[in-house]
């Protein structure tokens, strides 16, 4: 076994044990998708959970990418690829399966789009939306071999196409958007990070149940903000309300009015 293959095997084992991953398809996807295919050439700026800043890898050997580390996309803006264990945990929690239609809002450079592509298989679809035109173009190029992935440069709060089994939001917002809820198929699942201006908050899992929805806070999170969202003190208060309400018990509601749940 090569050093790279061994590093990739350790990477999958680490995530599987740490997050108690239940989905064999997810573990197979993590083992199969080369992380280096979705980045510029190294060396790379990486950051572990415990660190307070990026460090430069000693060289461009992809073996450095097969650890539970963030990799900088734009270090100046603190925009990175996302922590592999965290997003693997969310994908597992959402029970993404074969033939599902998955929408990603904020796909970045497309690594997790490729992972999802492998999970849903040729009869499933991944609709990957990215609001940054340069990132969207790079993601589309990286994802060209993945025939069941469509990359769209757009705003995931305005248009996400057909109804979805799973919607995953990869940026922080003050509240779930009505479009996301309306676009869920019966028993569809949404992962939405709800954050304040300091980028801190909680990820909520929202499930469509009958005519309504059920929300629960599943993980504290710090994440890059969605473009133009979460910029006022009112946004902070709305995000804080959702986090507190969903942390106490599953929150049941019918829709969203002015950012808060309603029974209308």
Outline the structure in words:
By secondary structure, the chain is of the alpha/beta class. The protein is built from seven helices and 14 strands. The protein has an eight-stranded mixed β-sheet. A hairpin with a 7-residue loop joins β1 (45-47) and β2. α1 packs across α3 and α2 (24-32) crosses α4. It is globular and about 55 Å long. The relative contact order is 0.11.
* Rg over CA atoms: 18 Å
Shape category: globular
Percent of residues in helical segments? Answer: 25-40%
**Element pattern in H and E:** HHEEEEHEHEHEEHEEEHEEE
Mean of the pLDDT scores? 93
Number of DSSP-assigned strands: 14
- Poorly predicted runs are none
Distance between the termini: 59 Å
GO molecular function, one term: protein-L-isoaspartate (D-aspartate) O-methyltransferase activity
Keywords: Cytoplasm, Methyltransferase, S-adenosyl-L-methionine, Transferase
Protein name: Protein-L-isoaspartate O-methyltransferase
Pfam families: PCMT
Layout of strands and helices, then pairs:
Elements: H1 3-19, H2 24-32, E1 45-47, E2 55-56, E3 70-74, E4 79-80, H3 84-93, E5 101-105, H4 111-120, E6 125-130, H5 133-142, E7 149-153, E8 164-169, H6 178-182, E9 184-195, E10 200-209, E11 212-222, H7 233-248, E12 251-253, E13 255-257, E14 260-262
Parallel strand pairs: 5-6, 5-8, 6-7, 8-9
Antiparallel strand pairs: 1-2, 1-3, 3-4, 9-10, 10-11, 11-12, 13-14
GO biological process, one term: methylation
Protein name: Protein-L-isoaspartate O-methyltransferase
EC number: 2.1.1.77
């Amino acid at each position: 076994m090569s050093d790279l293959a061994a590093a990739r095997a350790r990477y999958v084992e680490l995530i599987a044990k740490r997050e108690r991953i239940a989905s064999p398809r997810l573990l197979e996807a993590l083992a199969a998708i080369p992380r280096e295919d979705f980045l510029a050439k190294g060396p790379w700026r990486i950051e572990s959970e415990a660190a307070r800043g990026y460090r430069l890898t000693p060289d461009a050997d992809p073996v450095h990418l097969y650890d539970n580390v963030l990799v900088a996309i734009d270090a100046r803006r603190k925009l990175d690829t996302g922590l592999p264990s965290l997003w693997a945990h969310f994908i597992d929690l959402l029970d993404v399966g074969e033939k599902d239609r998955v929408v990603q809002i904020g796909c970045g450079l497309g690594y997790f789009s490729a992972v999802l592509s492998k999970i849903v298989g040729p009869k499933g679809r991944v609709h990957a939306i990215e609001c940054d035109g340069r990132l969207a173009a790079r993601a589309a190029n990286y994802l060209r071999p993945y025939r069941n992935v469509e990359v769209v440069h757009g705003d995931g709060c305005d248009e996400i196409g057909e109804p979805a089994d799973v919607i995953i939001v990869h940026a922080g917002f003050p509240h779930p958007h009505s479009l996301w809820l309306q676009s869920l198929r019966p028993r569809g699942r949404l992962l939405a990070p709800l954050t304040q201006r300091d980028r801190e908050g909680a990820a909520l899992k929202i499930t469509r149940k009958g005519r309504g929805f059920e929300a629960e806070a599943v993980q504290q999170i710090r994440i890059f903000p969605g473009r133009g969202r979460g910029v006022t003190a009112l946004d902070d208060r709305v995000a804080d309300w959702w986090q507190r309400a969903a942390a106490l018990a599953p929150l049941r509601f019918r829709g969203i009015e002015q950012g808060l749940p309603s029974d209308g």
